[in-house]
Design goal:
Elements lengths: L16 H17 L4 E2 L5 E3 H7 L5 H6 L2 E3 L5 E4 L4 H10 L10 E10 L11 E10 L4 H17 L5 E7 L6 H13 L5 H9 L10 H6 L12 H16 L5 E2 L11 E9 L7 E7 L3 H4 L7 E7 H10 L12 E5 L2 H16 L4 E3 L5 H12 L3 E5 L1 H5 L2 E6 L5 E5 L3 H9 L1
Parallel strand pairs: 1-5, 7-8, 12-13, 12-14
Antiparallel strand pairs: 2-4, 3-4, 5-6, 6-11, 7-9, 9-10, 10-11, 14-15, 15-16
Helix pairs in contact: 1-5, 1-11, 5-9
The chain binds adenosine-5'-triphosphate and magnesium ion.
The site of adenosine-5'-triphosphate has 19 residues, from strand 6, strand 10, strand 11 and helix 11.
Length: 420
């Protein structure tokens, strides 16, 4: 071991486990890639004000969790705590919204950073795959995103997750509700921090996880009862579209989210096998965000799914992803001449698209075969001086143990035929 360790709240992805991780990322991205979403990649850090304004000063993310720092040049930056503000910033900067039909549909995958109290499922460095549909107000778009996330989780074999759905209203009806909620909350027995929150972002109080707070919230006014006609109709349409796609969801009138920018459709994917860190993903509509960061009005909707927690959800359900062995063929040279020849064969096989590895370093047939076994390869190519003198190698089927001499000059084709 070195004298250094991964920083607190972080962990390394190590093979073979890391393959699960890649597979989860791919599975989440797959339905997006075939639904018109283009890949976007933004820097790992941004102007701190993009998040302060975009995500909202009163959110936990901005007030407590952000890794903000000043550069040697005096720029105030922050490691990105979430993806939406960055992706919208990038889309505006590239004027994607002016280059064709709206919405602009984008997906992303990457690392995010929050200074949180580390625990299972809650890390300081974590990974998300996300999707954003920018510039259109269309309930079918909200429905599409929820359906695609559902499809992604199902393709991984997950079953014990639930979709919670709510509407947060818009700039017409939310202020009325906000005031009613504040009136209610001011009458409760709450600590100073929470009292402050009532004045800045009262909806967030509904999200308080503490039993003592939740007990007092029982009779709180619900946004559902305050939605204006337009928001109500919009929400009904989203619900109808998801339902007709066969996606099951639960109405959750108390669902709010950690970010200030959400409007109308809000949803969360929760998994019942994860204890208190149960949210595996979430998202919603953020019609006002573009204007908040200096752009034009661009009503948008998106989600971000947590890769770390999705992997934990797979574990909780006892799901082992079927990941094909990384190596199909493993070359075992016996002697120096064979080493030179087989090393060339390995390069040829790789060029032909066959996943091939070579027994490096090992000494003696036993050591070599141990390497071959560990690689998980389906076939081993074994050759010594006598084989080479006859122009052949031994092709060993690692499953059946059968071995056959194959001519060296027809080897690539022979291997490809067997693997096909
Ligand atoms: P929570 O309520 O658990 O703090 P959040 O509302 O802060 O979640 P979002 O900002 O919506 O989470 O991020 C989307 C997803 O990213 C979450 O559902 C979760 O799966 C994942 N996520 C968020 N924060 C972390 C973290 N610190 N460690 C691991 N995954 C995280
Ligand atoms: Mg959080």
């Amino acid at each position: 071991m070195s004298t250094f360790k991964a920083p607190k709240g972080t962990y390394d992805l190590i093979p073979p486990f890391s393959a699960q991780y890649l597979a989860v990322r791919d599975a989440i991205a797959a339905p997006l890639r075939t639904s018109g979403y283009g890949y976007v990649e933004t820097p790992g850090f941004e102007d701190v004000n993009l998040f302060a304004r975009g995500v909202g000063e009163s959110t936990d993310i901005v007030s407590k969790e952000m890794y903000a720092f000043e550069t040697k040049g005096g720029d105030k930056l922050a490691l990105r705590p979430e993806g939406t503000a960055s992706v919208l910033r990038a889309a505006l900067e590239a004027s994607l919204h002016k280059q064709g039909n709206l919405p602009v549909k984008l997906w992303y995958s990457g690392s995010y950073y929050r200074y949180e109290r580390p625990q299972k499922g809650r890390y300081r460095h974590f990974s998300q795959v996300g999707a954003e549909a920018i510039g259109a107000e269309d309930p079918a778009l909200d429905a599409e995103l929820i359906i695609l996330a559902d499809q992604a989780y199902r393709s991984l074999g997950l079953r014990n997750f639930r979709i919670l759905l709510n509407s947060l209203g818009d700039k017409e009806c939310r202020p009325v509700y906000r005031e009613a909620l504040q009136g209610f909350l001011r009458g409760l027995d709450l600590d100073d921090d929470t009292r402050r929150r009532i004045e800045i972002n009262p909806l967030r109080v509904l999200d308080d996880k503490r039993e003592a707070v939740q007990k007092q919230l029982v009779g709180a006014p619900l946004l559902r009862d305050y939605l204006c006609d337009a928001c109500k109709a919009y929400h009904e349409e989203v619900r109808a579209l998801i339902t007709s796609a066969g996606v099951v969801f639960e109405d959750d009138a108390k669902l709010v989210r950690g970010l200030d920018y959400y409007t109308r459709t809000t949803f969360e994917f929760v998994h019942d096998g994860l204890g208190s860190q149960s949210a595996v993903g979430g998202g919603g509509r953020y019609d006002g965000l573009s204007e908040m960061i200096g752009g034009p009005a661009l009503p948008s909707v998106g989600w971000a799914l947590g890769v770390d927690r999705t992997v934990l959800a797979l574990e909780a359900e006892g799901i082992e992803l079927d990941i094909p062995a990384a190596t199909s063929v493993f070359a075992v040279p016996l002697g120096d001449e064979a080493r030179r020849v087989l090393f060339g064969v390995v390069t040829e096989l790789r060029k032909a698209g066959v996943a091939t590895d070579f027994s490096f370093g090992a000494k003696g047939l036993k050591g070599h075969m141990k390497n071959a076994n560990r690689s998980g390869a389906r076939y081993a190519i074994v050759a010594g001086e006598r084989d080479l003198a006859e122009g052949v190698v031994q092709l060993k089927d690692m499953e059946s143990g059968e071995q056959q001499a194959v001519a060296l000059d027809g080897l690539v084709e022979a291997v490809r035929t067997r693997l096909a």
